[in-house]
């Protein structure tokens, strides 16, 4: 397992993180999985044995049950070996008008509730789960600064923010000398590469590394779904799970076929491992959140940490999935290629290399 510095911080996290959205599995989250306490302990031990050093959860997962199971499953020995990241923004329990968002009222209350469910005195990485356009950024950062100074959280991150949202938070943090985000948790896969336009350049330029959620597109890049074949039973897609949306099903199947072909070049590798390994070799990506409905899936995914793809196979994956250049990027490719930064090249480098050929 590789350990990478997380953004502009001194914290090292494993390149794979254990996601726990399946822990509990109540309500709508039952579609993703329903791992009980015994299963959670087993998966946590599997992750520890593989070198994973962080768990990812959220207060809203099964209405707090995921956090409760983690609190029961860890105990002092496992807690000392694992970092915990959790998130706040959405209502958990009470549905009142102030039980959501990134206000000072909600964040402090949500943090206290998460600490109680997790049975811990601090959260290592506290994520703002989604943008809140109604709360001033200054208020959000002030609340997070208070929680950090109180020793209740270590670092902060943002999730599902747009590029300008992140930059607004960074500039406000610098202006007011408050805690700043060190990471962004985002959706990014071979099938969904929109993050390359703004979010990955921000990761490289501003030190706000990307931690990827649903890196297998909800299992669609695992190789189980093939063109012209029946959908497998017992999956979240079969249960009508809506995230992430698929804009072009045929393009998805094209990617899956290349994943399967590339996997055949590596002894014992699966399409899922190839999809994960590709992400781990992308600029600005610190770690991937991997969750599993069962132990077999988790064991397979954990092997991606040691899979190194050769340049020829990376090129095949690039060609089948590369997004088009939007404005102003196609203009920059044509007229600014003499003065591009490392952040610019996270998007533009493949297009410039194609022109050179």
Could you give a short description of this structure?
The chain contains twelve helices and ten strands. By secondary structure, it is an alpha/beta fold.
Helices and strands, with pairings:
Blueprint: E1 3-5, E2 12-14, E3 16-19, H1 37-50, E4 54-56, H2 65-81, E5 83-88, H3 104-118, E6 123-128, H4 137-149, E7 153-159, H5 163-176, E8 181-187, H6 199-206, E9 209-213, H7 249-263, H8 271-280, E10 285-290, H9 295-302, H10 311-321, H11 329-335, H12 342-356
Parallel strand pairs: 3-4, 3-10, 4-5, 5-6, 6-7, 7-8, 8-9, 9-10
Antiparallel strand pairs: 1-2
What features would you describe in this structure?
- By secondary structure, the chain is α/β, with parallel strands linked by helices.
- The chain has two domains: 3-315, TIM Barrel; 324-357, no CATH class.
- The protein is 41% helix and 14% strand.
- It is built from twelve helices and ten strands.
- It has helices at 37-50, 65-81, 104-118, 137-149, 163-176, 199-206, 249-263, 271-280, 295-302, 311-321, 329-335, 342-356; strands at 3-5, 12-14, 16-19, 54-56, 83-88, 123-128, 153-159, 181-187, 209-213, 285-290.
- Helix 1 packs parallel to helix 2, helix 6 crosses helix 12 (342-356) and helix 7 (249-263) runs antiparallel to helix 10.
- The longest helix is centred in the first third of the chain and has 17 residues, at 65-81.
- The two termini are 36 Å apart.
């Amino acid at each position: 397992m590789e350990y990478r510095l997380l953004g502009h911080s001194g914290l090292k996290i494993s390149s794979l993180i254990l996601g726990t959205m399946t822990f509990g599995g109540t309500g709508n989250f039952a579609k993703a999985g329903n791992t009980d306490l015994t299963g959670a302990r087993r998966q946590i031990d599997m992750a520890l044995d593989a070198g994973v050093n962080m768990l990812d959860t959220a207060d809203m997962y099964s209405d707090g049950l995921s956090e409760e199971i983690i609190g029961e499953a860890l105990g002092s020995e496992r807690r000392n070996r694992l970092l915990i990241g959790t998130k706040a923004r959405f209502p958990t329990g009470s549905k009142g008008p102030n039980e959501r968002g990134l206000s000072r009222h909600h964040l402090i209350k949500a943090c206290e509730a998460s600490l109680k469910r997790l049975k811990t005195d601090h959260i290592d990485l506290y994520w703002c789960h989604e943008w809140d356009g109604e709360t001033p950024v200054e208020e959000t950062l002030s609340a997070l600064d208070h929680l950090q100074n109180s020793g209740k959280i270590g670092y902060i991150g943002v999730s599902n923010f747009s590029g300008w949202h992140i930059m607004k938070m960074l500039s406000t943090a610098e202006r007011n000398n408050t805690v700043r985000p060190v990471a962004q948790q985002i959706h990014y896969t071979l099938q969904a590469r929109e993050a390359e336009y703004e979010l990955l350049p921000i990761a490289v330029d501003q030190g706000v590394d990307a931690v990827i959620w649903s890196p297998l597109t909800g299992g669609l890049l695992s190789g189980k779904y093939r063109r012209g074949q029946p959908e497998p039973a017992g999956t979240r897609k079969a249960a009508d799970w809506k995230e992430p949306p698929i804009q072009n099903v045929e393009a998805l199947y094209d990617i899956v076929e290349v994943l399967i072909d590339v996997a055949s070049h590596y002894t014992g590798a699966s399409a899922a491992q190839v999809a994960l390994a590709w992400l781990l070799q992308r600029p600005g990506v610190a770690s991937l959140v991997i969750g599993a409905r069962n132990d077999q899936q988790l064991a397979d995914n954990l092997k991606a940490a040691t899979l190194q793809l050769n340049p020829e196979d990376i090129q095949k994956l690039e060609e089948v999935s590369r997004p088009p250049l939007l404005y102003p990027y196609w203009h920059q490719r044509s007229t600014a290629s003499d003065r591009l930064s490392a952040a610019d090249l996270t998007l533009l480098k493949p297009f410039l290399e194609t022109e050179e050929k």
